[in-house]
Design a protein that fits this description.
The protein is of the alpha/beta class and 322 residues long. It is built from eleven helices and eleven strands. Strands 2-1-3-10-4-11 form a six-stranded mixed sheet, sandwiched between helices. A five-stranded mixed sheet has the order 7-6-8-5-9. This is Tripartite tricarboxylate transporter substrate binding protein.
Length: 322
């Protein structure tokens, strides 16, 4: 006799078997990759770089969807509201972690609503001045700021950006007071420095590499953990005795909460394999990137650590977005 309990157990078994079968054959249709910034930027670069290789590995198209705006919050919310079936993935920048520290309210929980999958690479934050700047070294810049507290301006791509956090860490480390000028994006901030209207900036190398190569920007020091190949001869702040915590923005794959572990492992392992491909690795290095290749657990630890660190800096510096 079929009882209510036996029917429920049978139905549950069918559901579990269906879920397992779906995970085992994933993907069976195109995978949407949401990016919270416009096409052509450093976050979009990682998506375009892996789009075709992953499509070949998975036998399905990877459809990139650029949902720019609000410091990638629009895109992040869209991912949080998506089914945890592996068909919507998020290529997030590290503002995913800093937003949690600077925004008074977010339409999602940065930790509870997402599944970290794999972290691709980081782009060092670099201290730049314009080509005609009188400052030849980071020491020159610090000395000028100490002579006139508050008189030296630093541009950033926005309040709470990685460059803003780097500036706040730097000025505390070396004991200077400066004026922070926030722009709406990296491009206008960099152009003001190139033109000499703002003396300096901390900027992501991947976003400034073109201006650095053509001489529009002069790099004084690297805010990342080590020197980079494309800026041969430029020291790190740590080498100069001005070391700050690493503020290098990262770019990684994240999914909605509850993403099944087999899908997490499939995506992570496939991406990690591609990062070992010399041709792909070379393209990342050529734009000033540092390959991280962090799996789910390491990536999760990084996000949690950065949220805590950024929250402390934001409190001390009064960085807050309502």
């Amino acid at each position: 006799m079929i009882t209510r309990r036996s029917f429920a157990l049978a139905a549950a078994g069918v559901a579990v078997a269906g879920t397992a079968r779906a995970q085992g054959t994933w993907p069976e249709k195109p995978v949407r990759l949401i990016i919270g910034y416009p096409a052509g930027g450093p976050t979009d670069f990682g998506g375009r770089l892996l789009q075709d290789p992953l499509s070949r590995l998975w036998g399905q198209p990877i459809v990139i969807e650029n949902r720019a705006g609000a410091s990638q919050i629009i895109a992040t919310e869209a991912v949080a509201r998506s089914p945890a079936d592996g068909y919507t993935l998020f290529l997030a920048a590290s503002t995913h972690a800093s937003n949690a520290a600077v925004y008074a309210r977010l339409p999602y929980d940065t930790l509870a609503d997402f599944t970290p999958i794999v972290n691709l690479y980081a782009s060092p934050t670099v201290l730049f001045v314009g080509r005609n700047s009188p400052y030849r070294t980071a020491q020159d810049l610090v000395a000028a700021a100490k002579r006139e507290p508050g008189g030296l301006a630093f541009a950033s791509s926005g309040n709470g950006s990685s460059g803003h956090f780097a500036l706040e860490m730097f000025r505390r480390k070396v004991g200077i007071e400066v004026t922070h000028v926030a722009f709406r994006g990296a491009a206008p901030a960099l152009q003001e420095v190139v033109a000499g209207r703002v003396p300096a900036t901390f900027s992501t190398l991947s976003g400034a590499i073109g201006l650095a190569r053509d001489g529009g920007l002069r790099p004084l020091a690297i805010g990342g953990p080590r020197r980079v190949e494309v800026l041969h001869g430029v020291p790190t702040l740590d080498e100069l005795g001005m070391g700050i915590p690493d503020t290098s923005p990262w770019y990684g794959f994240i999914g909605p909460k509850g993403l099944p572990r087999p899908i997490v492992d499939r995506v992570a392992n496939d991406v990690l394999g591609l990062l070992r491909d010399p041709a792909i690795a070379r393209r990342i290095v050529d734009v000033g990137g540092i390959i991280l290749a962090e799996g789910p657990e390491a990536f999760d630890r990084r996000i949690r650590s950065e949220i805590a660190e950024n929250a402390e800096i934001a409190r001390e510096a009064g960085i807050r977005v309502e």
